[in-house]
Write a structure and sequence with these properties.
The protein has about 90 residues and is mainly α. About 85% of the residues lie in helices and about 0% in strands. It has helices at about 5-15, 20-40, 45-65, 70-85.
Length: about 90
């Protein structure tokens, strides 16, 4: 029995959950991962590893919260702020 056969029942149970519950679990796991990376960074652990952990945690939060769908709005706001600052 390899790892995929062992993990498949967990994956099926996770997919059987309602959409909002799956996204909430991914959101909480991403926040915990980001928090872990922040704690490692505050202890001056390997900086390269901390950056990767922080980016993965932040990307998980953005993806699970559906904020990534608003990228055009954020791009317009950034463009306006840059135009004002010039």
């Amino acid at each position: 029995m390899n790892a995929i056969d062992w993990l498949m029942p967990f994956y099926r149970k996770f997919i059987a959950l309602p959409f909002f519950t799956r996204r909430a679990i991914i959101f909480v796991a991403s926040v915990v991962l980001w928090w872990f990376g922040a704690m490692l960074a505050s202890m001056h652990f390997n900086n390269n590893l901390c950056v990767v952990i922080l980016l993965v945690g932040a990307a998980g939060v953005v993806w699970s919260s559906e904020v990534w769908r608003l990228w055009k709005v954020f791009a317009v706001i950034v463009a306006i702020c840059l135009a004002i600052m010039k």
